[in-house]
Design goal:
Blueprint: E1 4-5, H1 8-15, H2 23-26, E2 31-37, E3 44-51, E4 58-65, E5 74-75, E6 83-88, E7 94-98, E8 112-116, E9 124-127, E10 133-138, E11 144-151, H3 158-170, E12 184-185, E13 188-189, E14 194-202, E15 225-230, E16 245-246, E17 252-260, E18 266-274, E19 280-284, E20 291-298, E21 303-310, E22 320-326, E23 333-334, E24 341-347, E25 354-359, E26 366-369, E27 376-380, E28 384-390, E29 396-402, E30 405-412, E31 418-420, E32 431-439, E33 445-453, E34 462-468, H4 486-489, E35 494-498, H5 508-512, H6 521-534, E36 539-549, H7 551-562, E37 569-572, H8 578-584, H9 589-595, H10 602-608, E38 621-626, H11 635-646, E39 651-656, H12 666-683
Parallel strand pairs: 34-35, 34-36, 36-37, 37-38, 38-39
Antiparallel strand pairs: 1-5, 2-3, 3-4, 4-5, 6-7, 7-8, 8-9, 10-11, 11-14, 12-13, 14-15, 16-17, 17-18, 18-19, 20-21, 21-22, 22-23, 24-25, 25-26, 26-27, 28-29, 29-30, 30-31, 32-33, 33-35
Amino acid sequence: MADETTPTKERDASGAAGAFSDPRRYVAIPRLSGLAASGPGDRLVGSIAHLDSAGGRHVSAIWELDPAGGQLARRLTRSDKGERSPAFASDGSILFISDRPRPGGTDDDASALWRLPDGGGEPWVVAARPGAVTAVAAARDQPVVVFAAKVAPGGRDDPADEAWHKDRSDRKITAILHETLPVRQWDHEIGPEEVHYFAGVLRPVGAGGAGADASAGHTDTDTGLVEVRDLTPDAGQALQDARPVLSADGTTVVTSWQTSLPEGRVRVDVVAIEVATGARTVVASAPDAYWYYESPTISPDGRVACLAQSRGKPDEPYLTQVAVVDRAGGSPRHLDLGDLWPAEVTWSFDGRTLVVAGDRAGHHPLCLVDPDTSEVHVVQAGGSWTHPVPVADGGMFVLQSGIGMPPRPVRLDASGNAQAVQAPGSVPVPGRIEELSATAEDRTNLRAWLVLPDGASATEPAPLVLWVHGGPYGSWNDWSWRWNPWLMAARGWAVLLPDPALSTGYGLPFLQRGWRQWGGNPFGDLMALTDAAEQRDDIDESRTAAMGGSYGGYMANWIAGHTGRFKAIVSHASIWSLEGFQPTTDLPSAWSDQWGRPAEDPEFYRRWSPDAYVEAITSPMLVIHGVNDYRCPVSESVRLWTDLVEHGKVAKYLSFPDENHWILQPGDATVWYETVFAFLDHHVLGRPWERPSPL
């Protein structure tokens, strides 16, 4: 259904007071996750997720947002399966990906590419294949479209591709024969399908076929996208998790390209592919695979910028930098951005300047960078600024957020002045946030965010939970739907969000302090910041807990074995034994590069494995894990739980058989919070144990 104004009940839900007091209300807050703008900047759309009618899952839809900020958002699409990844074509129509049934199709149809005309109406399919469409890019100035889709292994022709998919479906085959590493990624097996890029040209709307009557729901894809051809028939698994980026004139695609190497390592290059011929050129590569080049962007004059991440060595921490190279290739030139740890890079609309967002000192600023001199001009310094979309007037649209604010769309003019754009999802938080500092044992300056509940004071000090971020290469500087401190604040807790050694945005020496000693300086930094928080008169130092996920889970386990100061500890998706983790995680070489393999340096592994200190644990522990987690395999928490039980420790284990590294389904997310609340209420606040009702 098109042209639907924001429903009243959704506007009320997004701004309702106390949305954090009940996890079931919290998961119902609309979630804005991405933006797309027309070249002139006169149209803006976003992908916004809501709970479905049953409340069991989040479903995203495409919403029209007013670029000037004055009008309410309008919902443009609606289906049970949802819509995502919007992109503007050169004629102003909107392309998106959806699992919605195609006319004449079934609920089992794979994701297809759809098109919504500039003037509104019903969308129609422009590209569909037996395997799912996974990404789309549209040229700014020409009717050229490139989309990614999953195909049968070996680059088979279309009839063979369809037969292969049908055979596996009919015979209920899910088996995968692997021949290289890696075999898994985060929450899914790699293969057997390959991702290929396909290019085509959009027919003008009204030129006949579906374009003449969008409401007719035609399924003939030739009426929407013609001259479709496979640009990457030899891709194999090179394009897994890659995204195509198309030049403004539609002649060139740039993308990351992964190659498997001996001993389970990979090389990640940036390649350019000619749309007319499929000819492929390596643009950025490190022959020794020390640098991974990924997330490329291309300027109108053909220059390519990308993120460059180093592989890391025993004596050298990981680094992430911005690299620039000519479209024809050559040696990538790495830019010196100081303490800025880049996470996103794109070109300004005119291609003269780089737009870079990244971590720095507890924030995620938005910067303009001169690609020739590396000079950095900070456009927005405080909070978090992500997903920049430059437009023709020299400004851009961007998502603004922060620890205390969910993402909202903002328009920045050419001078960096901000104008908010209305969208569902704005909600006040129940408390306040302050910055806290401390000094490490080696005299390094440390900082953290401290979330304080309403009413915390010297007469009513709040209990404290130390919450350690994941990574470990990361920073507390942005909103998180999964690790959200405001649900704790709504229940009267203060939450400490520290950036210890190994956190990003503080320069190379700060990373070096924690390199190859996960439980060393990072642990000392966490304790120093906790000491600083407990010295405040609005914090009750006698009622404290610690928790964390991923690397934060590792640190929760390490803390448990090295101090008894916390009355309870929550360990989510953790690492318990480094020896067990290194060969079973989804990319083992990432850790053997810095640690070696267990047989090569057993002393290192024993020294820094939390399981070596199980006897010293005195704090009650809540262990949580999603079974489909391949980054930190569930075996880590099973071993942790087994060791705790066998050593007579006070503990509980919350398992999610259908979840992964993150707990994503709304029902499971509410149970996650309810169980954490119950555990901390009992062991820290002294309340009777109350088992969450769904359990």
